[in-house]
Amino acid sequence: MDSCEIELTFPMLEYGATETPWDLLPLLFRGGAAAKVKRVARQIAQGELGHLLTERVGLVIQLHEQLTDDLAGGGSRFSTKNKINALRTFFSWSDSEGGDLSLETVADTYIRWSDYLRHRHMVDRKLSEGSLYDLTRLTATMLDRVLCRQSSLSKNTRVRKPRGKGKVHTSKADKQYLHNTFQFGHALADICNSLTTEATIGPLPVCIKLRTGQELEHWSGLPRPQTGEKHRIKLRSRRQIEVSRSKRTAWEEDRTLRTRYSLVNLRIECELLMFIGQTGLNLQQAHTLRVEQFHYTSHLDGYQVRAYKNRREGEVLFEIFAGYQAWLKRYLEWRSAWFANEPDSLLFPLIRSGGRILEKATQFENINNICHELGISMIKPRQLRGTRINWLLRESRNPNQVAELAQHTVETLIRVYTDPHPQITMMEIARFHQKTDPYLAPPAPGRCISAIPESVDIIPRNAPRPDCINAAGCLFCTQHRDIESEDHVWSLDSLRYLKSLELARYRPPTLDPQLSTEHPALAVIDRLTAKLRFFEESSEVRKSWIEEVRIRISEGHYHPAWEGFIRLVELRQKTL
């Protein structure tokens, strides 16, 4: 079979001026998967990779049909690229082992390959657990479809999904993350404010001043002048010196995009990140937006932005907060000064050497380098969207509405983006138990004989007042009654332990021992201790309840009504 008769390219894709078109033909030759992409076509044509392996044709053709079907159905270009890279890795290993790949043997070859990768992870330590799982899982997904398997090939291997470490945020960690996000946002705003139209066409270097007092020098592609003895360059002649000076002068006097594109790109990247943080669009959507005659319609606390064409308002492109409207308009004015001849081009028209692929988004290398220089954290687009989503969730407490704004299902929103917070969790657990748990009606252990709270005659000064909401307040209410059962005693002692944890975290404002004993939790602990002492001293049966409950508490076995709260408090103490 002649290789010219087999078409394994992807003509539906747009390629950059210097990008090599994708082709699965090298997978049909031994050593083709490991060959350089730019050279492999010549090597095949010259016969350097030997003859085409006919046993692989059926397998590779089906893999190619899979990938093209995904692209035709709206699949991501970058997901397809990752799949091709995974296949190249798999075929390359098979070639190195001298094995035969075909529809009949590919399953066994895949299992041996997964064992090899697992050895690299477990023994050689050259592959991370996450990379091991992602690579084997992605390859198995493609092979499963080719082989029409009901269960995944990955289940026949010893590779398992890495255990997540969880993402419960404590107050301290959450505040630190928000601080880093605000710090990053301030840096983006300062860069945008510094790179005005006048500054970008002005003398080099452009000085970018930050509100922190730091300054950045940007030479826009011009080599930075070197100073000091070790940086001196010995030129051969005076003519070379004059030529070097004339080139620098000509570069600085050229105020077009040919020499100032790096400054323009830096401003556009900053504006793109700020746009994502404001609108919640993902990077793929944001960087492919085209500039339009935007029309702003008031909506809630912000604006819905539509395209205005032929006296008609189109569909809503995105939503912004009210404070961002002036900023966006200022950017559009700056953009029109540089791209006046391209009114219908991209909203964020990054300039790239070798041509730009519409689907390929920037990786923000320039901003990453600046963040490293400034010593601040780089917040990526997905993290920006996550911060926005979590803030909206905390403010609105409406997952359905936030999911609609974020263009996700509620399940995806909670599984991927939501970061649990102990304080919110404690409140939700309390509300749930108040509605469904018979142990907490009233909030404290026991029963109520009336819905009208009334304080006992003698109550400590700082004790919580009964309000039918706070469990501690019920202990000082005349309507509250204890229950004669071991379960009730267990609940009382668990609540006492919870209050002791609360008291342990208390730091009095003064060292005066009189003031240090006035915390409300102490009055609650004394009240619970008195109740438990009564149970212990009233009869032998009740005393046996107390002894059993103390053993449970010492073993960390708490009453279900309070266990969730206790675990959250203990977790928070460990992280502080």
Question: Can you put this structure into words, describing what you see?
Answer:
This protein is mainly alpha-helical and 576 residues long. Helices cover 52% and strands 6% of the residues. It has 22 helices and seven strands. It has a three-stranded antiparallel sheet with strand order 3-4-5, with no helix packed on it. A two-stranded antiparallel ribbon has the order 1-2. Strand 3 and strand 4 form a beta hairpin. The longest helix is centred in the first third of the chain and has 24 residues, at 171-194. The N and C termini lie far apart (68 Å).
Mean pLDDT: 83
Q: Indicate the low-confidence ranges by residue numbers.
A: none
Strand order of the largest sheet: 3-4-5
Count every helix, treating DSSP H or I runs of 4 or more residues as helices. 22
Can you write the helix and strand succession as a string? HHHHHHHEEHHHEEEHHHHHHEHEHHHHH
Q: How far do the termini sit from each other?
A: 68 Å
Which sheet architecture does the biggest sheet show? Answer: 3 strands, antiparallel
Overall outline? extended
Cα-based radius of gyration, to the nearest Å = 33 Å
β content, as a range? 5-15%
Residues in helix, %:
40-55%
Beta strands, count: 7
Structural class: mainly alpha
Using brief descriptors, characterize the structure shown:
mainly alpha
Outline the fold blueprint.
Layout: H1 37-45, H2 57-72, H3 77-97, H4 106-122, H5 129-147, H6 171-194, H7 197-200, E1 206-209, E2 215-218, H8 238-253, H9 257-279, H10 283-287, E3 294-299, E4 302-309, E5 312-321, H11 325-338, H12 365-374, H13 381-396, H14 399-406, H15 410-417, H16 422-436, E6 447-448, H17 471-474, E7 480-481, H18 486-504, H19 513-516, H20 520-538, H21 540-554, H22 560-575
Antiparallel strand pairs: 1-2, 3-4, 4-5, 6-7
Helix pairs in contact: 2-5, 3-5, 4-5, 6-9, 9-13, 13-14, 14-15, 16-22, 18-20, 18-21, 18-22, 20-21
